[in-house]
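[step 3/7] fold_predict: job queued, chain A
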Amino acid sequence: MNLVVLAVWVLVGLLAGLLAEPVIKRGSYGLRVDVVLGVLGSLGGGWIFWALGISPGPWMVAVVVVALGGAALSIVLQRKVWPAIV
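[step 4/7] structure written:
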């Protein structure tokens, strides 16, 4: 893992958190929580793949897909398990 991959994970997590509010309107705790969940999910998803030894190779698309999947999963799980009462 290098610094570029880590930066991509964080940026994808930030974007996923920012886009979660308009896409999934119900059950959110706000923009700040969505961004934090996006970044944590992105880092978590990327770390799991890295720990399993699955290398994305030279293709940055695979890094983005893994980060986006982790971010989306963490945000969707929050909305399903601990939805905010609006």
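[step 5/7] annotate
The chain is about 75% helix and 0% strand.
The two ends are 41 Å apart (CA to CA).
exit 0
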